[in-house]
């Protein structure tokens, strides 16, 4: 492995957060960071550590099959309420989206606490304001959201067919979704 790739490796190991290619270049200087990342990714493939890219940011993580070996205490999974889960899904699939748009899709108002929980988890962030009357605040997902759910980008979110195959769509929800899609198609 050449000295430049070693410098990229050291930078990623020392970082407390995932780094973009530009942030890596700030530390190691100009060079072929993408090529070095490719070499490192191949070097760590199949090992106890893996070099992964999530949302345009690179970091080392424990190989998924070895993660249980490193747990010393039992993690209590954070359970999201149905409202928070629905809100997170709407933001992920429609971002950037305003509070009013989230409420229109859900059909009910959302409490401020729901968005606060998602922002505290680091999965949702304010994403500016819409150029419309009232200039509503927009929300979008974060790189932490992608990392937590193991997604390379939002394009990796499951589609309707994937959700049906996994049994995650309630038959009534599926019928309502199809009716909504049909009515939107007729409005065009």
Please state the CA-atom Rg, rounded to the nearest Å.
20 Å
Q: Structural class, from secondary structure content?
A: alpha+beta
CATH level-3 fold name of the largest domain = Arc Repressor Mutant, subunit A
- The total tally of domains equals 2
Specify the CATH architecture of the largest domain: Orthogonal Bundle
* Mean pLDDT figure: 83
Shape by Cα distribution: globular
Distance between the termini: 57 Å
Q: Please identify the top-level CATH class of the largest domain.
A: Mainly Alpha
Put simply, the count of helices is: 10
CATH homology superfamily of the largest domain: Winged helix-like DNA-binding domain superfamily/Winged helix DNA-binding domain
Task: Please give the largest β-sheet.
Answer: 3 strands, antiparallel
Order of helices and strands: HHHEEHHEHHEEHHH
The portion of residues forming beta strands comes to 5-15%
In helices, the fraction of residues equals 40-55%
Which stretches are low in confidence, meaning pLDDT under 50 for 5 or more residues running? none
GO biological process, one term: cell division
Keywords: Cell cycle, Cell division, Chromosome partition, Cytoplasm
InterPro entries: ScpB_csome_segregation, WH-like_DNA-bd_sf, WH_DNA-bd_sf
Protein name: Segregation and condensation protein B
